[in-house]
Amino acid sequence: MGIISIENLTKDYGKGRGVFDVSLQVEKGEIYGYLGPNGAGKSTTMRHLMGFSKADKGDIRILGMDCWREQKKIQEKVGYLPGEIAFLDDMKGSSYLKFIGKLRGQKDFSYAEELLEYFEIDPGSKIKRMSKGMKQKIGIVAAFMHKPEVILLDEPTSGLDPLMQNKFINLVEKEKQAGRTIILSSHIFEEVEKICDRVGMIKAGRLIKEVEVDELKHAKTKIFKIEFNAAGNVDKIREAFPDSVKVRDNNQVVVSINDLQTNDLLRCLARCDVKFMKEIKQTLEDYFMQFYGGDKNV
């Protein structure tokens, strides 16, 4: 059993809304990326992990504790950043952090002070006067400040400018080195590809794919744009790779191959008059979109 364990989680809100038979395991020190469109079930999964919602069926555990039956312990021990943070606007940032710390029984706030400085936050400002990005940074500090073993982050960089996004990524990498276990939902594919060990893809409440990020980098389809000096060369490529070639014009093709076909392609091109060849880098987003019908609105 992983540090985070979900077995057959189902919560049916009706009309196709909810999560259905979701199972995943996250091991100690692993960063797990949880990807999917709005409404796919990411936040619902997070709420069940925090013990805020009771599943219709399934077994959900963190550190061996049942997330529903032992919700108080879970909420004390786990760091959590919700997708939408409910602040008391009249509070100052420092008061909010102390309030959250008190709920957990936290006495040492030295790491909170370190994080406030790191993210350039004035804790004496009232929350209602803070920008969305500043409020998000307060939420991040609240999730990390008690040095929890497990951290759940729902769209953590929402509202952050690029500089603070980079600072957040650096923080997560540091926490990983300290042995923290993290689930992170995000729409920023470059971010997930950079910091996550494994990625789960959820669609319409169902976990449809899990991939190791390192394996994905090597297993992805390689795509090459090739232009020839003579149109006849296009036919040679089409004959060699009949299911992998798209013809752009008389002299230009796009070839999609796997790693094992690379040498075959190079041998074929050695017999051709090549004008130029360029690899088109495939990202995690390209891979992800194969499962979402090319819909970029995720």
List keywords for this structure.
single chain; 298 residues; alpha/beta; Rossmann fold; Alpha-Beta Plaits; 3 domains; 29% strand; elongated
Topology:
Layout: E1 4-14, E2 17-26, E3 31-35, H1 42-49, E4 57-62, E5 65-66, H2 71-77, E6 79-81, H3 93-104, H4 110-118, H5 132-144, E7 150-154, H6 162-177, E8 181-185, H7 189-195, E9 198-203, E10 206-212, H8 213-219, E11 222-228, H9 232-240, E12 245-249, E13 252-257, H10 262-269, E14 274-280, H11 284-289
Parallel strand pairs: 3-8, 3-9, 6-7, 7-8
Antiparallel strand pairs: 1-2, 1-4, 4-5, 9-10, 11-13, 11-14, 12-13
Report on the structure:
The chain has helices at 42-49, 71-77, 93-104, 110-118, 132-144, 162-177, 189-195, 213-219, 232-240, 262-269, 284-289; strands at residues 4-14, 17-26, 31-35, 57-62, 65-66, 79-81, 150-154, 181-185, 198-203, 206-212, 222-228, 245-249, 252-257, 274-280. Strands 6-7-8-3-9-10 form a 6-stranded mixed sheet, sandwiched between helices. It is elongated. β4 and β5 (65-66) form a beta hairpin. The two termini are 31 Å apart. By secondary structure, it is α/β, with parallel strands linked by helices. The chain has 3 domains: 1-78 and 149-161 and 178-220, P-loop containing nucleotide triphosphate hydrolases (Rossmann fold, 3-Layer(aba) Sandwich); 86-147, no CATH class; 221-281, ACT domain (Alpha-Beta Plaits). 34% of the residues lie in helices and 29% in strands.
Which architecture of the largest domain does the CATH hierarchy give at level 2?
3-Layer(aba) Sandwich
Number of E-type strands: 14
Order of helices and strands: EEEHEEHEHHHEHEHEEHEHEEHEH
**Class inferred from helices and paired strands:** alpha/beta
- How would a crystallographer describe the biggest sheet? 6 strands, mixed
Beta-strand percentage range = 25-35%
CATH H-level superfamily title of the largest domain: P-loop containing nucleotide triphosphate hydrolases
What gap, in angstroms, lies between the N and C termini?
31 Å
* Rounded Rg: 24 Å
CATH topology of the largest domain: the name is Rossmann fold
**Please, how many domains?**
3
Oligomer: single chain
